[in-house]
Every structure is written in structure tokens, then in C-alpha cells.
Amino acid sequence: MSAEATSAPAAAARARSRLALSTTAPLVMLALFALLPLLAIATGQTHWLSLINRIVILGIAALSLDLILGVGGLVSFGHAAFIGLGAYTAGVMVDAGRGDLLLVVPAALLVSAVFAALTGAVSLRTKGVAFIMITLAFGQMAFFFSQALYAYGGDDGLTLPERSTVAGFPILANKVTFFYVSLGFLVAAYLLVRAVAGSRFGRALQGARDNPVRVGSFGFDVFRIRLGAYVISGMLAGLSGVLLANQAEFVSPAYMAWQRSGELIFMIIIGGLGSLWGAVLGAAAFLLLEEALSGFSEHWKLGFGVLIVLFVLFTRGGLADLARRLTGGRA
User: Fold this and answer.
1) Is 20 exposed, middle or buried (CB count within 10 Å of its CB: 0-12, 13-18, 19+)?
2) Is there a contact between 79 and 139 (Cβ–Cβ < 8 Å)?
3) Quick one: pLDDT at residue 20?
4) Cβ neighbourhood burial of 148 (10 Å; 0-12, 13-18, 19+)
5) How far apart are CA 70 and CA 56, in angstroms?
6) How far apart are CA 96 and CA 116, in angstroms?
7) Is position 48 within any domain?
8) What are the residue ranges of helices labelled H in 67-210?
9) Closest Cα partner for 237 from 111, 64, 121, 75?
10) How far apart are CA 321 and CA 257, in angstroms?
11) Which H helix or E strand runs over 251?
């Protein structure tokens, strides 16, 4: 029997393994997330609720970046700017007495979409290192602009007088309810990104990542496809900023710092580049590891960096690929 004939069943088996895992793993992960607050309450460890909620919120941000990085191959070092824009939109509206979530979320999505469209129209005319640097530049511009907002605290940030209401009701005041609202947004964001990635638009975006010239020769406008993905990604990151501002009840220019964009990239790499559920898993691993190490030493970031380097060196596809191999798939 030829090598091609023997490799065909193996390839089919690997494909079935990936499909099964991509279907069941997100369901298992989301079910665990849903049970964690109940477990924290049952064990009296309610202080974990804030960390779990932060994982879910930053999971949305990591998922948004994975759309353009993992699916589209666009390395952005300014993605935290969208988180900051969403957070400041929430902070300013709550401070002005118009902080209902039904108003704040559409406003934050609009602000993020406009910023993404304007900056993306410029950034996406470049590629490679130039794209990385120009997204970093736009992110830093947003960072320094927020520092100049002296009416809203400037470099000291803005403390929210209260959390956003939902249709006039203080639903987010309760930590458990707030968590499930955040989880609902995460589920919606995951379904949206998965639908986009699996659509004709998403396949064209993946094709543009691998061979933009060939995709363009088929009649697709690569620039518009990438710009559309960039806008969707920015809007989802802005949504995570709204939730982050409400959870912390505080908004700071630090949300927009380039280091935050780097952290999002690390989350995606840890979880598995291009694996949408892996991006959320990577956010959980990143924040849990950060929480564990910070309790040992004030120099915990040194050990954190070493662990990330070792992880990248000795795993090829992140936690998502590791899970696939452990459940019967082959590398």
C-alpha cells in the first residue's frame, strides 16, 4: 500500500478529532465557567468571583484579537486601545448619569468601530513589521490622549460612582449576576466570531493570511475583508472594556498601554493561535498563573516570563493542541 493511501485515513482521523474537540471543548469550558461561581459560594471562597469574572471579560478581548491574529494573520500591538475606548465610554457615560448598559454598549461599539475603521484604513495599507509598528503607534496615541483627559482624571484615571444599570435596574451590583451577564456576552462573542470565521468571509480572510495575491486574483477585495475583520475585532474588544470598567468601577489610561496588547497576544499563544476557544482558555491560564505567582515574590514577573518562554518552546499549538493530543488526536 502506498504512503499516500496510508496517510489518507490518518489525516481523516485527525480532522475528525479536531472537529469533535472544537465542538465539545467550548461547551465543556463554558459549563465549567458557569459552575465556578456556584462552587466559590458553596466553599465560601467568594473572593475568587472577581478573578473569574476578569478571566471571562479578558477572554472576550483575547477572542477578538484572535479573529485578526489567529484567523487573519494580522499582528496588532495596539489592540488594548479598543479596550480603553470601551472602558472610557462606560466611565464617561456613567459619570454623566447615562450609564445604563443598554445605552453604554451600543455607544462603546460605535466608538470602537469608528476608531477601528479610521486606524485600520491606514494600518492595513502596510504589512509585516510596518503594520505592527503603526498599530502600536495608534495605540499609544490613544493612550496619551486619555492621559490628557483632565476632566476625567487624566493620568490618575476616573472612578465610577456606580456600576451601569440594565434597563434601570442595578443588576450588575451583584457580583454573581454580573458574572453571568459577562458570561452571556462571552458566549455571544464566541458564537459571532466562530460564525464569522466559518463563513465565506472568514475563509477569504484565512486565505488572505496565507496568500493574499491568490485570494485577490479570485475577485476578493483583500483590503476590505481585512478592514471588516479589524472593525469587528475592535468592537468586541470595546465590549470587553465596558465590562472591565464596570467590574473595577475604575477607568485608567493603563488599560490602553502597549503592554496590555502584549498580554493579549501571550494569551492567544498560550491557548493556541487560531483556536477560538483556545484564546479564552489562554486568558484563563494567563490570569491564573499571574495570580499564583504574584503571591510568592515581588519579582514574580521574571519567573512568569521564563514559564511563558518555556511553554512556547515545548508546545507547538498551545493548550488547544495539547488538549487535542491528550484526547486522542495526533500532532
Assistant:
1) middle
2) yes
3) 56
4) exposed
5) 19
6) 25
7) yes
8) 80-95, 101-123, 129-147, 175-198, 200-210
9) 64
10) 30
11) strand 250-251
Q: Which residues contact 31 (CB under 8 A, 6 or more apart)?
A: none
Q: Decide: pTM greater than 0.85.
A: yes
Distance of CA 94 to the CA centre of its chain: 24
**For 22-51, b where at least 16 C-beta lie within 10 A, e where not — what string?**
beebbeebbeebeebbeebeeeeeeeebee
Q: Residue 125: CB partners within 8 Å, gap ≥ 6?
A: 223
The verdict on residue 210 lying in a domain is yes
> C-alpha cell of 179?
458574572
Record the cell numbers describing residue 55, joined without a space. 478571566
Provide φ and ψ at 251, rounded to 5°: -125, 135
Position 194 in a domain: yes
> What is the pLDDT, as a whole number, of residue 33?
85
Write down the pLDDT at residue 31: 87
Q: How far apart are CA 62 and CA 79, in angstroms?
A: 10
State the 10-residue block means of pLDDT for the chain, 331 residues long: 50 53 77 87 83 94 94 92 95 90 96 96 91 94 91 87 89 92 95 93 91 87 94 96 94 90 90 85 89 77 79 74 65 40
Neighbour-count burial of 257, counting CB atoms closer than 10 A to its CB (0-12 exposed, 13-18 middle, 19+ buried): middle
Question: Is 6 inside a domain boundary?
Answer: no
Q: How many CA atoms lie within 13 A of 296 on its CB side?
A: 11
Overall number of domains in the chain: 1
Report the alpha-carbon distance of residue 182 to residue 180 in Å, rounded.
5
Cell of 202: 472568514
Q: What is the pLDDT of residue 293?
A: 82
- Separation in Å, CA 110 to CA 155, 246, 293: 25, 18, 38
What domain range is 204 assigned to? 20-257
